Amino acid sequence: MTQEATKKPLYVGLAGMGTVGGGLVELLEKDAELIRRRTGRDIVLRKVLVRSATPERAAMLPEGCELTTDPADLTDDPEIDVVVELIGGTGAARSLISRALDHGKHIVTANKALLAEDSKQLFAKAREKNCLLRYEGSVAGAIPIVETLGGPLAGNRILSLMGILNGTSNYILSEMTSNGLDFETALSQAQELGYAEADPTLDVDGFDAAHKLILLIRLAFGLDYPFSSMPVQGIRGLDSRDIAMAREFGYRIKLVAEARLHEDGDGRPRLEAGVFPMLVHHTYLLARVGGVYNAVRLEGAASGSLFLHGRGAGALPTAGVVLSDLLAVAREERPNNTGFADDEILSADIVSPEDWHSEFYVRVMVHDEPGVLRDIAGCMADEGISMAQVIQKEVRDDVVPLVFMTHDASAQSMNRALQKVREKGVLRAAPVYYRILQ
Amino acid sequence: MTQEATKKPLYVGLAGMGTVGGGLVELLEKDAELIRRRTGRDIVLRKVLVRSATPERAAMLPEGCELTTDPADLTDDPEIDVVVELIGGTGAARSLISRALDHGKHIVTANKALLAEDSKQLFAKAREKNCLLRYEGSVAGAIPIVETLGGPLAGNRILSLMGILNGTSNYILSEMTSNGLDFETALSQAQELGYAEADPTLDVDGFDAAHKLILLIRLAFGLDYPFSSMPVQGIRGLDSRDIAMAREFGYRIKLVAEARLHEDGDGRPRLEAGVFPMLVHHTYLLARVGGVYNAVRLEGAASGSLFLHGRGAGALPTAGVVLSDLLAVAREERPNNTGFADDEILSADIVSPEDWHSEFYVRVMVHDEPGVLRDIAGCMADEGISMAQVIQKEVRDDVVPLVFMTHDASAQSMNRALQKVREKGVLRAAPVYYRILQ
User: Fold this and answer.
1) Which of A336, A352, B322, B389 has its CA 20 to 30 A from that of B347?
2) How do residues A338-373 score in pLDDT, each as one tens digit?
């Protein structure tokens, strides 16, 4: 199947030689034949930007490729067609991409933080310069969700999307669920295995998933959702008791990023979006996403439900889709960076999380005394919340966990009801509650 | 979110006004605003080709759109930019597409039979005329598998793919499994619900899944696999006893279309592909695909395992991806019809199904006599096949079903072993065996 390249090579400048960067260098070499077959061209790595140019790193590069520590060597080199940005973060990456676009270079990036927090100008500049700005690697690793939303699902009005978008959190929750670990132990284990950073904030506090959700909202709905407005709750400190209790009701606890479009009476679309630990019924495919896997479930007006599942991170899974983005550049596909024709992405009308409705899982720690359940049920009923199922068992120092599932209620009424319960003086610890995925 | 179209409309000629055609007419009207947002253009239906132009049909069309019974009205009209072929079959559809390409029109089709049996010339002609030939709707309904293989997974060497690609068969198997129906009853029920045609041959005998598999093989591996060479076994006459027995071992029986690439010692890739009822372990996501849903599982060298699940057929799910193909045409994406740059798709080196290795499920009907199991195990052992698990129960007229699962074996040695068992004279009916999905 050997094929000669029929067109001039695509010259690449790579910024960042970490896990994914290293994977990309490996794939460019190993899959040179596949690349020629897919595009009719060679993809040639010319320069790699690193913080320190060690001989070990230089030895990993193909012949004719130079290491540099100066971003301008990539952005200003007239021979380079496309800059691959894999340094991450929002500072240096932003300057690099902006300057590369100024010089008319296409961009391939996996930088969700930058694209979520600060991308309007970058998309506008890419459009103005007629450059591609591709970012399949920035969401859900090998799962082709960016392309799916902008391409084959573009003919669908997307009604909702929900995803497990952070592999680190999912790994921790899976270990807590399957092996009964507590949060701190599971986190340490994830850190030892290299699944979690020394500072796990971005992952376990939900911000990484929120970044990705903002990218998906733009692709699915053509709406800009400000990062600062997004309700985000992570899994830090999640109690393994709640995982066990949820299991008794037939649920798993997952960190779910979710966005739903609501049509108001006046026909204006409003968006409900956020990241939360949620109870997912075990019969849902989303409940079966284990370890470091990611998954996305979409609901399209025409398509119905669509479920995509794959590796959410790692050197090769992400490098593979970064390479696919390079192939798209090599095939000179036209700019369609956001999946919408508009220059300017519209701002979302946001539904406050207080107004969201769902079923809830609630755990309160109470003294095992007569009348406590009646008091709590009364507070719920006062706010129009009815209880669907109750579990009460396991006595410990005469403080008892009382767990119940509710029927549909707004977060606002749940908060008010729990405030009333607090005022009754029957609680021995702060109440814990999670939404149940519908 | 109202947006004006900024470019000239895309003019469409639609051939076929059946289920999917009707769905497309509906979406073009309802989603006009979304289409403008996605592309900056209007997509305007100009002519619809039908076999008989009834007033009822004319009433379903938008203003300014004409019904016609003459294909040349679509193919030769200089105003029409793209022809959507939804008439199906290989005769009239082929002439229509070929003539439309001669006139430089882009093509959107959902015709898997045509593209599987007779598409080399059509792809070559599309390329020569610089026309798009898009066909997302031809495989697995709303699942974006065509785009995924040609786009975001293009940077992966695909090692294997397996799918549940025929919703009718999957519905029948699901009903047989969940409700204990026999094949004929489940088929009648599928026909009553409109999930199966009056002549169900294409669906239940595996040919429809085989057509789709050929399209996926081309996209994944860039290889042409002749339809006439493909091993195909359907589900007609599948015994509900085998479904029940498989269940006892923890498996579901699914109609699986599968292709695996093998590297020979000399590095030449060889392809193992076919459609068979197979046992799928209940813990696999593929085992959980129910009713008329479809699913595809890919294994990529970089991506690892990827699983896509969605509606496999129906008016709107398929019309939605046909519309997405129209959006891609409207955005003037460059021709990349096969996912490979080559004009000519290479021919596959095919592995004979006789040489495939797998674990097997085997059921034989025997007299309940001493020594029978020993005889059968002996025949298996003579061919190097070892038995992993055996079930023997339920006595009926003193003929007993003896069911066993084997370790890895080639189909050839299994056939030889079963021939030897036959020659022992202990069988009371032809043996039944299925491969077990690895």
Assistant:
1) B322
2) 666 655 667 777 778 788 889 999 999 998 787 889
Contact B77, B99 (CB under 8 A): no
Distance CA A52, CA A16 (A): 11
d(Cα B363, Cα B244) in Å, to the nearest integer?
Answer: 12
Per residue in B290-304, pLDDT (tens digit) is: 999 999 999 999 999
Best probe of the B interface among A149, A303, A311, A337, by most B CBs < 10 A, is A303
Nearest to B304 among A156, A301, A311 (CB): A311
Q: Share the mean pLDDT of chain B.
A: 90
Residues A308, B307: contact at Cβ < 8 Å?
yes
**pLDDT(B396) > 70:** no
Residues of B in contact with A334 (CB under 8 A): 331-334
3-state secondary structure chain A: CCCCCCCCCEEEEEECCCHHHHHHHHHHHHCHHHHHHHHCCCEEEEEEECCCCCHHHHHCCCCCCEEECCCHHHHCCCCCCEEEECCCCCCHHHHHHHHHHHCCCEEEECCHHHHHHCCHHHHHHHHHCCCCEECHHHCCCCCCHHHHHHCCCCCCCEEEEEEECCHHHHHHHHHHHHHCCCHHHHHHHHHHCCCCCCCCHHHHCCHHHHHHHHHHHHHHHCEECCHHHCCECCCCCCCHHHHHHHHHCCEEEEEEEEEEEEECCCCCEEEEEEEEEEEEECCCHHHHCCCCEEEEEEEECCCEEEEEEEECCCHHHHHHHHHHHHHHHHCCCCCCCCCCCCCCCEECCECCHHHCEEEEEEEEEEECCCCHHHHHHHHHHHCCCCEEEEEECCCECCEEEEEEEECCEEHHHHHHHHHHHHHHCCECCCCEEEEECC
Contact A331 B331 (CB under 8 A): no
Question: Closest by alpha carbon to B155, among A33, A19, A149, A60?
Answer: A33
Cβ burial, residue A252 (10 Å; 0-12/13-18/19+): buried
Query: Are the C-beta atoms of B50 and B17 separated by less than 8 Å?
Result: yes
Which among B41, B309, B324 has CB closest to A155? B324
Interchain contact, B334 vs A336, CB within 8 Å: no
Q: Do B222 and A37 touch (CB under 8 A)?
A: yes
CA dist B358 and B340 (Å) reads 31
pLDDT confidence of residue B1: 45
Tokens of B242: 């085998």
pLDDT digits (tens, 9 = 90+) for A408-435: 999 999 999 999 999 998 898 999 999 9
pLDDT band, residue A268 (cuts 50/70/90):
confident
The SS3 call for residue B128 is helix
Contact B316 A301 (CB under 8 A): yes
Among candidates A3, A320, A334 on the partner chain, residue whose Cβ is nearest the Cβ of B302 = A320
Residue listed under structure tokens 């459009």: A127
The one-letter amino acid at B258:
E
As for the ipTM of the complex, it is: 0.89
Six token digits for residue A318: 């992400």
Residues B22-45: what's their mean pLDDT?
A: 93
Write down the pTM of the prediction.
Answer: 0.91
d(CA B437, CA B360): 9
Token pair 């109470």 is found at: A366
